[in-house]
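Students often ask why we bother encoding 3D structure as a string. The short answer is that it lets us treat folding as translation between two languages. Here is a chain of 330 residues written in the first language.
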Amino acid sequence: MKKEECYELLKIKVEATPEEIQKAFDLAVKEYRARERASPSQTEREFEKIVAAYRLLIRERNRDSSSGSSISENGGGREDVLKHQPVSEVYSKGAGHEKGIQRGIAENMTDEIDKHLVAFLEPRSPASEQYRVLFTRTQQLLGNALHKLLAISSSVKGEGKTVTSLNLATVIARDFGRRTLLLDGDLKKPDIHSYLRRAGKMGLVDVLLGKATLEDCMVPFLFEDLFVLPAGTRCENSLKFLSMPKMGEILAQLAKEFDYVIIDTPPVLPLADMNIFSNLVDGILLVVRAGKTSRDVVKKVLESLPSQKVLGVILNDMEVNFKKHYTAPY
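And here it is in the second language, the structure alphabet:
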């Protein structure tokens, strides 16, 4: 998006201050919501444009205040520092305008975000920290894999793989500054769109059918480094689509464009979809809900997957008392 479009979209002047940009953003969101209630189908991607415009202009002012120079297209400044700043520093020290960006977006998106997206809604919580730990360990296990295609699956449905995928993608993009794509690979029963509430109707299936391009279907979400590719048109014969040579080509293209591609895949049982995905990805994480899935089922699932691709098992919904570990500031 060009800066001229941002000024026009938010209806502000080039010399607008950060405070004026914030007020314009708040007003634009308020007007958007009114239009959405009147005609939902006409405003499907408008919100993402408003957020993108807000972020671009605020970040530009951020560079300005850091460098003490006039408005320019280039230059590093605080934005670049933040990308490489440790997570604990970002949340404990405030991080200048960047914190304002996230707070501004969060205040206007709270009712748009599903409560399960804890990594966004409660970034300093113990649960969010566990997602950061999960990523760092996954990164170590993947080692020097050139392309980071990561499948998140489960033995059966209802174990939390989609929520895990959403939160993991969030921390990778926001806290580690990696360009990340969240792909809904469950073509029969796609679920990611129900959590995001504003993902587009077209997606992977439509790209495979040649009805749309990847650019048409990818939706920016929450942060500039996070995108979502929905499943798109629902299909009954998912194996037919996943077996297409074009599927491998699409993943190869996405691997070049993103640092990490997180794929929310179907459960291993009773479908055969994971047999195909296991050959297309660099690593697999299996989500297991504590107290629900039996050891025998998990063992059977692990035996059905290529051992060299399985990075580990995520024990979900386990009650842990973090209080004694998080009572003192650090």
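Translate back mentally: The CA atoms of residues 184 and 231 lie 5 Å apart. Keep this in mind for the problem set.
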